[in-house]
Amino acid sequence: MLFWFARAYGLRYTILRYFNAAGADPEGELGEMHDPEPHLIPRVIAAALGSESTVEVYGTDYDTVDGTAVRDYIHVTDLAEAHVAAIRFLQSGGASSAFNLGTGTGHSVRQVISAIEQASGRRVPFRNLPRRAGDPAELVADAQDAVRCLAWHPRYSDLDRIVRTAWAWHTSIRDNARRSLKARA
């Protein structure tokens, strides 16, 4: 649609293709919570906090470092900066384009679980299940066009930082909810 709209009306655009958006605002003001929660990192955190009984690990027989699926996680702060870079790109006359936004590095499901265990100091209960139909072994971004054209580089997307910011946000909202309940009692 953007292509045809651009052709008809002269609009220039950028399409930003996120890989796995994760993490939370480093100041702890914004984070991620869905009901139901489909994303791995918040689900693993919920299991570490005891609000979920286990995390399901779908597939342990992939041809990956530990047999579990590998995905590219990109911090939400890096995504915000990519949006600003895309606007500047268009303002400076850049052509309509699509860009992958990721780190180019993947982490397995078990690596994510381990990182959250380290950040939280808690064991994460999980259970292994068969692969889901259609799930690829590995999905990792090639973001070189974004690096080259937008002068954008992910700066906050190492797995430990993603997990630390997500853990801090989830525990702060849990603590705030507890304080609110005590205040009402």
Record keyword descriptors for this entry.
185 residues, alpha/beta, UDP-galactose 4-epimerase, domain 1, 3-stranded mixed sheet, two-stranded parallel sheet, 6 helices, globular
Question: Overview of this structure, please?
Answer:
The protein is built from six helices and nine strands. By secondary structure, it is α/β, with parallel strands linked by helices. The chain has a single domain (13-21, 34-170), classed as UDP-galactose 4-epimerase, domain 1. Strands 7-4-9 form a three-stranded mixed β-sheet. The longest helix is centred in the C-terminal third of the chain and has 26 residues, at 159-184. The chain starts with a helix and ends with a helix.
Number of helices: 6
Overall strand count: 9
CATH architecture, by name, is Alpha-Beta Complex
What portion of residues is helical?
40-55%
Order of helices and strands: HEEHEEEHEEHEEHH
> Average pLDDT, to the nearest integer?
93
The best one-word shape is globular
CATH 4th-level superfamily:
UDP-galactose 4-epimerase, domain 1
Strands of the widest sheet, in order across it, are: 7-4-9
Overall domain count? 1
Which residues form runs of ≥5 with pLDDT under 50?
Answer: none
Radius of gyration from CA coordinates: 19 Å
Q: Based on helices, strands and strand pairing, what is the structural class?
A: alpha/beta
What's the story with the biggest beta sheet?
3 strands, mixed
